[in-house]
Amino acid sequence: xxxxxxxxxxxxxxxxxxxxxxxxxxxxxxxxxxxxxxxxxxxxxxxxxxxxxxxxxxxxxxxxxxxxxxxxxxxxxxxxxxxxxxxxxxxxxxxxxxxxxxxxxxxxxxxxxxxxxxxxxxxxxxxxxxxxxxxxxxx
Length: 139
Prior knowledge:
Number of helices: 2
Radius of gyration: 17 Å
Protein name: Lipocalin-like domain-containing protein
Number of domains: 1
């Protein structure tokens, strides 16, 4: 009986597993990728090739819905210049749900990001063709 129960638990875990798609996890989740992406996010940490640049992102918030809507509010400093804007648009998964693509009204905010970590309370993204890594946490 004990072996059957363990086997059932392992089989159930694999049925709900997201197949270890992301380098930093998680290995298993009971929520779909869409449900984990949909959240109101803020920057917890920003890195450029491992160097902490979080202070350059005074306010950077991203609201994502299950139906693919996105709103980006940004107030950040880049090379001594302060940028502030809000733009709306859409998001979609790419590359077998290992990347996120953003298409905003403000085309400067568009981009494709590799998903490094996707948990209900963590979303880590790295610019697909860049060096910036953004670690989001719920607002």
